[in-house]
Amino acid sequence: MSAPRILPLLLLLPLLACDEEMEPEATGDTDAAETTGDSQSEVVVDEDAIAEQALNFESLVKLTDEPIGSQHGLADTMNLWVDEGSVATYASLGSADFAPGSTIIKEQLDADGTLDSLAVMFKGPEGYAPDSGDWWFGIVRPNGNVGPAGQPASCVDCHAAAEDQDWAWGLPEGG
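Predicted structure:
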């Protein structure tokens, strides 16, 4: 190999040796990170980032044509939104697990059709929360306040009955 070809490689070596300093840092109380084998992207359970994504739910894919009855009792009706990569998995619940980073949002509406809150499921990396399928659960208010969040017993207990569907409930008939 000629000197002009080796020089650029030699200049890159110090950068490759410093990969520890270049890795993104996890933040927040409920952080967990993992590099996935397929996409080599890092999935981090970051409550603030999840809340921000939830508040921008209209950028996701809406799975309901019209608001349907809310199963949570937290609102009168709801719309269901998922990230684009989760549409096929949601449509075939039970035949595949959601990928880390998957997001499911229930837009919960009051009797007037006004946003009451967002019930959010975010799939963390493998090992994040093994007793709940590695899901983070939370309620995000329109003002950005979050809570309860993480592993609320009411969420985990209810979704445990859907463990064979990767902890996600399907839409009711006609939803």
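Summary: The mean pLDDT is 80.
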